[in-house]
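Assess this one:

_____
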Amino acid sequence: SKRSVSNGRFGFYLALPSILVLLILLAIPAVLTIFQSFFIVPPDGVGIGEFAKGDNYLFLFKNEIFWATSLRSIWFALIFIVGSTVIGMAAALLLNEKFFGRIVLRGLLVLPWACPWLIVGIIWKWFADGNIGLLNGVLLRLNLITEYKDFLSDPSWAIWMTAIAATWRQSCLVALLLLAGLQTMPREIWDAASVDGAGIFQRFRHITLPWLRPALTVVTVLNVIYGLMQFDVIFAMTQGGPGSSTTLLSFLIYRQFFIFTNFGIGSALAVALALIALVGGLIAVKTLYRKIEV
């Protein structure tokens, strides 16, 4: 027992530097943000300002822009979550098979994921450009359009293009995580099901998906967080426009903090976004996580 206590203390001491770093980088800013959300902070940021009780939150709940932006953020996140999960799953299943060039393709899968979100936004802004964009050139050659179209200036297309750009990068991370899960699955299980007459879709549904459930839980939670808190791609591609068609909660927070210097409202928005992400993550865990019974 003494040895277990000493081992526990030793483990705590080893983890202590990481705990301190997390407290400094995450916990303290989070507490300050919650604290500021209850005050009318001066624009110059000097002092805490007047105590506003819950007026900042009441302002948000009565504001139509907040609700419209929240729904837009959830819609963007749904496109992002479904798209990156489906594409990532397909890529993982493909790269789990044996074929010539598989190692090269696995290496290339890392490249989009290694790109910063801001660079991804810049790349896709060029790709979807209405004058020189490659996307228009391809669609024109396929006779899907008759003239160049500026997708990012069209309110009905802008949200889709930004979501697709973010999905392109995230699907590579999803593929890597799911591929790692597939690598741990014994091939004998799949082969035995095939011998018993199970088709490819039956094997996928009853063997592969249950095996990947833990990895899918992690992937979905990450997708919920990245989807709801996406900012860089929007900032690089559309700046929240045209109009407010791509203005998400994260971009609304940026405007309140850095353009209008309204720190109280900005902090309340940040807390609201964190709560939405928390609820989304809990729903994902509740839906996908299953306790393994031995």
Remarks:
- The chain has a mean pLDDT of 89.
- The beta strands are 39-40, 50-51.
- DSSP finds twelve helices and two strands in the chain.
- The radius of gyration is 23 Å.
